[in-house]
Known about the structure:
Elements: E1 17-19, H1 22-42, H2 47-66, H3 72-80, H4 83-102, H5 108-127, H6 136-151, H7 154-157, H8 166-185, E2 196-198, H9 201-222, E3 226-228, H10 238-269, H11 272-285, H12 296-316, H13 319-336, E4 337-339
Antiparallel strand pairs: 1-2, 3-4
Helix pairs in contact: 1-2, 2-4, 2-8, 4-5, 4-8, 5-6, 5-8, 6-8, 6-10, 8-10, 9-12, 9-13, 10-11, 10-13, 11-12, 12-13
Amino acid sequence: MCKDCYRGNSIGENDEMKQIGPWTAVGIWAALCLAGVLYGSWQGYGGRAFAATLTTMAFLLLVTLLLAARGVADRLAASFGPASGVMLGALVFLFDVLYLVGTGTFDFRRAAAVLMLIFVPIGLALTAGKAAVGCWQDFLTILGIWVFVKFSPSHWIWPYPGGRLAYVMTVLVAVNVALASFILARRAKGIGYVFGWGKEWTFYTAGVFLMFACIAIPLGISMHFIQFAPQWQKWTSYLGLSLAILLFTAWPEELLFRGLFQNFLSRASKSDLAGWWTASVLFGFSHITNMGFPNWRYVILATIAGIFYGLTWRKTGSIFASALVHASVDATWHFFFRTVQR
């Protein structure tokens, strides 16, 4: 394990890493919000419903970015202690109510479902108190967040506009709940929830991506899982889709499976290797329902991918680095290969 991986969220403040500050995070957030406004307007959305949806998403995204900036999480935890996690949960719930009221979809059952999805994990994390990370409450909280993302009735909870943002809203809320539970309430160490870059990280990320590609592409083709089918005509959407993959797929999954699960398994078992490989296998099995059940080809390739993502996290101590590898893999798959259905 890299020497800084168990130093908690302050890892980004060591001399070997340049981490973005709060104002830089706000600048990135503002640019993304502006892009969202322009894209929504181009798609014909507007009015109160669109404003309420954009406001809610903007808040959730702001928290996601700010808590990865230098010193923000530490200052919040120092000022409010574990209560900061409860405060964040309350704000997430209030903004969700704003979304429901603003879009004209408010229903007490929806509000109650969101309330439970937010505060059950946070409350469970709080019951752990000052217990060492890797206790049963931690793993149960992680499982609950994963089930929330994978199996919750997201299209019913977030119906506007036509359920098309249900996945994004689910992911943003889940990330905020994970941050409230583990970064703020539990102050768990070694997660590596940072936006920054360290020495030799370019070498690690590029090398891991190329090593995985050399294994996964021939294996995927031989298993009749993928076919080389580049979509050159869609090159103009490559950057935007790659960014969306990074923010809404790679970043949340790396937080859950590497920053939390692999981290806590390593601590609980007192073995980096056991945590790494166990998290990778479970990451693979989490994809068994994708594109039909049981999809063993997906499980095999996702497990191998998890091993390489986990290696990146171990070498850098940052989910940002592993998320970049993850996003690069997914974007390459999307634009250069076609999945063979069975």
